[in-house]
Amino acid sequence: MEKGHKVRRWFVLLCAHMSMVIFAGTYRSLGVFLVEWKDYFNTTSTEISAIITVLAASGLLSGIPSGIVITRYGCHYGSLLGGIAFVSGTVTSVFAPNPLVLCFTMGFVTGLGIGAVRNSAVVAIAQVFKKGFSRANGIALAGASIGMMLVPPLLQLCIDQYGWRGALLILVGIQMHLFIVALIFRPPQRVNVPEENQTKSRPAVRGGKNETKEHELEPLRGVHGDNSKSTCSDVTLHLSSAKDISQSVDEKQKLNTGDDMTAHSHVDTEPDKTKTDHDEIQKTTEDDHEIDTEQNCLGVAQSPKINGDCEGVAKFCTKEIDIIERDGTEVSNKRHGPSHEHSGLKENELLMNLSDEVRINEPNGDGPSAPCASNRRPSRLQRGLHFSGLSLFCNNVGFCLLNLCQIMIGLCYTGILTHLVASAVYDGIDQQSASFLLSVFGIGNLIVRLASGWLVELHFLSPEHLYVLAVVAFGATMIVSRAWSSYEWYVVVAILFGLSSGLFRTLDSVVLKRYVGMKYFARAIGVFYAFSGVGDLIGPVFAGALYDASNSYDLPFYVGGSVLIVSSGLLLLEPPLRRLKERRQARSRIDSDESAV
C-alpha cells in the first residue's frame, strides 16, 4: 500500500505539471490571436483587448468559488470543472460572430476555469507531498513557464496553417487533457474494516485503565457508530441513561450507607478487611460514575443544532447529570472525608474542555472564526465568510500581510513586465531583439522554479525570509535597470528578473501553507490568487500612467522598485504581531477565568 501511494504521488505531480502547462498556455497565448481577430472582425485594438481584460477579471473572480469546491468535494472535481469551462469556452469561441460574443465565451467562460485548474494543481501537490512539498511545488509550477514558452509559438504555427478557428480547435484538444488530470487527482478508494474485526483486534474493558483512545473518542461519534452528528433522539437516549445512572447512584448510596454501618459494627474484629471492601466499592462507584457522566455530557455537547423542543431535553439531562455529580461527591465525602472534595471540580473542567473541543470540530465551526464558547448557530454571513476563506483575515496575521504584499507585487510585477520590451525599444534597441528579452526572462524563471525546492530544503533561510529576499532582489533590479541602456545590460536585467520572480512566485504557496495550515489551504489559495489578480489588473494601467506623467520609463521603474522593497518588509512584521496577538489572547483567557471564579 505504501509503495502504491509513492507511485501515485509522482503521477499526481506529473498531472499538476501538465495542468500548469495548459493553464499558462491558455491564459498567456491569447495575444497571438489578437492580431487575427482585429483583422477578421475589422475592429479596434481597444475592443479586442477587452477580451484579455475580461479573461483576467473572470480568472480573478473564480479563485474563491474554486477554493470552496476543492475544499468540499476535492481536487478532482475542481480540475474537472476547470476543464469543462476551458473546453466549453474555447469550443463556442470557434463559432463567435463578433467580438462581443468572444468577450463572453473566450473571456468570461474560459476565465472561470483559470482559478479551478490552477488551485486544484497546487492543492493536490500539497495533499500528497507531506514532505518535500517545496520541491514538488517548484516542479509543478515550472509547467507555467514551459506553457508560456511552448504554447504561443505552437498556436502561431497552427494559425498560419489552419487559421484562427482551426488553432482554437487544436487548443481544445490540448485542454481536454484536463479530464485525465481530474481522474488522476481522484483520491484512492479506502477499504472499510468490518466492525467485528475491529472489536476482535482491539478488545477493551469499559472503565479500565488500559482503555484505548478509540474507545475514549466513541461518544464523539453518532449513536450508530459513524461520524454523524447527534440528533434529538440521541439526547433522549442520553436522558434515559442519566435517569438510570441516578437510580444506580441512589442504590449505591444506600449500599454504601449499609456498608458503613457494617463496618462500624465490626471495626474491632476485621478492620483490614472492611477497609479493603470500602476501597473497592468506592473505586467501582467513581469509575462507573465518571465514565457514564462523561459519555452523557459529550453526547449533549455534540449536538449544537438541536431545535427548541430538544433544548429543554438537553437542559433537563444536564440537571440530572449535575444531581448525579453532587450525589457522587456527597457519597465520596461521607466515606472518605473532605480530602476528595475537589474531584468533582476537576471532572467538570475536563468535561467543559471536551465540550469546547466538540464545538470547534463541528462542520459549521471548524475554522478560526468559530465561537468556541458559544452554542449559537453561526449566521449565514459567518458561514459564507468561513467557507470562502475570507474569515482568515480576522484571525491570521500572516495571511493578511501576505495578501497585502501580493497586491503590491502584482501591481509592480505585471506592470513592469508589460513595459519591459517597450522600454528597450524606447532606448534604441530594435523590436526583434527586444522581444527576445521575454524569452530570456522565461528561461531564468524556469531554472529557478525547478531549483527553488532544493534551495528551501537546505534550510539556510526560512521560506518567509527567502520570499522577502527574492522580492527585494526584484525591486532592486528594477531600480538599477535604468542605469544603462545597452542591449547586453537588458539581457542581464531580464535574467535577474526571471530568477527573482521565479523564486517568489514559487514560494507563494509554500509560505501560504505555513501560515494557514493544510486544513484551510484550499480556501486560502483561492483568496490569495484573487488578491494577486487585483494587482495584475491595475499594474499595466499604473505603469502606463506613470509613463504618461513623466514621458519616460525611469519613473515607473523607480517607483515600482521602491514599492516592492517597502512591501517586502510587511512579512517581517508577522512574528512580532503574532506574538502580540497570542499574549493578548492569553491575557483575555486569564481574565475570563478569573471572572468566572
UniProtKB/TrEMBL annotation:
One of its GO terms (molecular function) is monocarboxylic acid transmembrane transporter activity. Residues 194-231, 246-290 are annotated as: Disordered. GO terms for cellular component: plasma membrane. It holds the Pfam family MFS_1. Keywords: Membrane, Transmembrane, Transmembrane helix. The keyword Disulfide bond does not apply. Residues 208-227, 261-286 have a biased composition (Basic and acidic residues). It is a multi-pass membrane protein. The chain crosses the membrane at residues 12-30, 50-70, 77-96, 136-155, 167-185, 390-416, 436-454, 466-484, 490-508, 520-543, 555-573. This is Major facilitator superfamily (MFS) profile domain-containing protein. It comes from Strongylocentrotus purpuratus (Purple sea urchin). The lineage of its organism: Eukaryota, Metazoa, Echinodermata, Eleutherozoa, Echinozoa.
